[in-house]
Amino acid sequence: MQRLNLETTLARETISERELQEMKALLEAVEAMLQEQDGPGDDFLGWLDWPTTMKPEEIEKIKITAQQLREQSEVFLVIGIGGSYLGARAAIEWLTPPFTPNAKGNPEIIYAGHHLDSDYLFGLMQYLKDKEVTVNVISKSGTTTEPAISFRMVKALMEEKYGRDGAKDRIVVTTDAAKGALKTLADSEGYQTFVIPDDIGGRYSVLTPVGLLPIAVAGIDIESMLQGARDAQTLYNETVITDNPSYQYAAYRNALSRKGKTTEIMVSYDPSYHYMAEWWKQLFGESEGKDGKGIFPASLQLTTDLHSMGQYVQEGLRNLFETVVRTEKPVKDILVPDTGSDDDGLGYLAGKPLSLVNKKAMEGTSMAHTDGGVPVLQITIPEKSPYWAGQLFYFFMKSCAISGYLLGVNPFNQPGVEAYKANMFALLGKPGYEKLKKELESRWQE
Ligand code: PA5
């Protein structure tokens, strides 16, 4: 079993061996809290052994449903927000080769329910009108406003296109086993449903039906992804702390933040990591950002953003550290063409693999950033594959739990998310929010 590699050389100057040794006892205490399940949020630890406890029948049901949905559709619409769509999108965009053509049998995967923009939804409705469509609406609570509004519109469109019975065969719901408006609707309409386990929160749910169904509809091998997660469950629960990269990653983050490095930038040199970074930002941001604490997770796409944000990283406020995520080798490596001419000044690169050029750009950038006071951690994955997506997801979830406990917060709740919702409901006149509405309106008038 191979692990991903965490390289810390370019951050070591900021953390001494002694400091890391001092953290060992803390890390052991945190590991004990996770294993004994007696830390804050201990009723949300289902993801810890999920890869080995998920029932084979459920995996089979996902695969069968995904195959049916693929055969039925040109477009597969995933409706969800936050942890209810980011994991699926991260895996799908990481693993689907760019410019892959879609057709019935290998549908285009598109997303809704992750914002409230009218133009987007209007455009989406127009786009779906003439396509063969299937839908997976995902919401653990079953009451989240953004996906509920999108689904209300999409449901009406599906019923107009296929009739109520036809729509029923094209809509799959992933939600709580018993509660929530979406569950009630699914039962009354007779939609096929998948259950989000009670003890797994949204941002830790990518390896449950929340992520696995859309990922399987995209044609990705979920058995292999789960195998990666199972191996990760063994590898990253290794209790010899110094031998476990998920502990080391959490320890470095914690030590760096205590030295004032309070913003972590996930950096990649491959655009397919974009949504992996979005998923990672939600995982760490929502897990750690509370009680006035937390490292602010940001992301950059290099070398693209070196021409927009590179200046800031090199010389701006020195509260940054960087975590590069990279794949050892691309799926297809192409060569810089040898044209026999140096007219464009690229003769020195003729015949060289583009992956080498990209790697040297990364090495040069990492060294420049370190010299500029931005410590760099590097996570290397041997290859882009479903197996490694499974390992990577589990690695980050485990690191995040440890990191949250090290920080002294509950990494499994998100009380702060309610504040905007309450204000929005009050301002929209939702029954029960009359008092708050008055308070908010008087504040705007002042
Ligand atoms: O991680 C979380 O719990 C959140 O980001 C949720 O996934 C998000 O708020 C969506 O919630 P729900 O699935 O209940 O619609």
Shape: globular
Mean pLDDT: 95
Q: Report the span from N to C terminus.
A: 63 Å
Query: How would a crystallographer describe the biggest sheet?
Result: 5 strands, mixed
Low-pLDDT residue spans = none
Keywords:
446 residues; alpha/beta; five-stranded mixed beta sheet; five-stranded parallel beta sheet; 16 helices; binds 5-phosphoarabinonic acid
Structure description:
It is built from 16 helices and 10 strands. The chain is of the alpha/beta class. A 5-stranded mixed beta sheet has the order 1-10-9-7-8, with helices on both faces. The longest helix has 24 residues. The radius of gyration is 23 Å and the shape is globular. The N and C termini lie far apart (63 Å). Bound molecules: 5-phosphoarabinonic acid (PA5). The site of 5-phosphoarabinonic acid (PA5) has 14 residues, from loops. 5-phosphoarabinonic acid binds next to loops.
Give the helix/strand layout:
Elements: E1 5-7, H1 17-36, H2 50-53, H3 56-72, E2 75-79, H4 86-95, E3 108-112, H5 118-129, E4 133-139, H6 145-168, E5 171-175, H7 181-189, E6 192-195, H8 209-217, H9 222-235, H10 245-258, E7 263-268, H11 274-288, E8 296-301, H12 310-315, E9 320-327, H13 354-371, E10 376-381, H14 386-407, H15 418-427, H16 434-445
Parallel strand pairs: 2-3, 2-4, 4-5, 5-6, 7-8, 7-9, 9-10
Antiparallel strand pairs: 1-10
Bound molecules: 5-phosphoarabinonic acid.
